[in-house]
């Protein structure tokens, strides 16, 4: 069995506060639904990005770990069930995450196991960076610097990747 989730390091919490991020959320109370969808079936999530819920039989492959186009969220939720961390960002519009921030996060995701970076077209208004683990979500606005974003993401990864937080 995987280790229990760790506390998010103080450096990441400080960076998140400086970047005006919200608190880490636990979207579903009780036991989150982890049903597998039938082949060809899709599920539309109420929350974006989705953290628990019904999902595809197949997860996203571990390689590539950096995507420049949106991924299948039904597959991504399956990755979360397997203790992955998804780093999502807003790629377009006035709240888009700056390219230098995305580049630093891509370097981080490319150097880590069980971490995937991808743009997400349906992030909530005001959210430009979202870190997702199984039933855990941490959202930040577009103002995070590259250093803040990588510190925040590293702390979230250290806390939740590979942990028993996921089923």
In short:
The protein has 167 residues and is an alpha+beta fold.
Account of the 3D structure:
The chain is of the alpha+beta class and 167 residues long. Helix content is 28%, strand content 12%. The chain contains four helices and four strands, in the order H-H-E-H-E-E-E-H. It has a four-stranded mixed sheet with strand order 2-1-3-4. Strand 3 and strand 4 (136-140) form a beta hairpin. The chain is globular, with a radius of gyration of 15 Å. 42% of the residues are buried. The model has no long low-confidence stretch (mean pLDDT 95).
Features:
4 strands; 167 residues; 12% strand; alpha+beta
Spatial ordering of strands, largest sheet: 2-1-3-4
Instruction: Write down the Rg.
Output: 15 Å
Total strands: 4
Identify the overall geometry: globular
Helix content: 25-40%
Topology:
Layout lengths: L9 H9 L54 H9 L3 E5 L9 H13 L3 E5 L9 E5 L2 E5 L5 H15 L7
Parallel strand pairs: 1-2
Antiparallel strand pairs: 1-3, 3-4
Helix pairs in contact: 1-4, 3-4
């Amino acid at each position: 069995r995987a280790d229990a989730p760790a506390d998010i390091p103080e450096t990441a919490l400080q960076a998140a506060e400086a970047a005006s991020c919200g608190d880490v959320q636990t979207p579903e109370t009780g036991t989150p639904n982890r049903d597998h969808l039938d082949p060809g079936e899709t599920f539309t999530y109420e929350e974006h990005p989705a953290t628990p819920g019904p999902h595809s039989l197949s997860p996203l492959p571990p390689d590539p770990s950096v995507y420049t186009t949106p991924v299948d969220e039904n597959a991504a939720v399956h990755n979360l069930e397997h203790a992955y961390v998804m780093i999502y960002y807003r790629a377009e519009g006035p709240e888009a995450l700056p390219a230098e921030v995305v580049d630093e996060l891509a370097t981080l995701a490319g150097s880590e196991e069980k971490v995937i970076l991808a743009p997400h077209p349906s992030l909530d208004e005001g959210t430009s960076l979202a870190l997702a683990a199984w039933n855990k979500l941490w959202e930040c606005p577009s103002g995070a610097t590259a250093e803040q974003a990588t510190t925040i993401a590293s702390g979230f990864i250290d806390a939740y990747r590979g942990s028993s937080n996921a089923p």
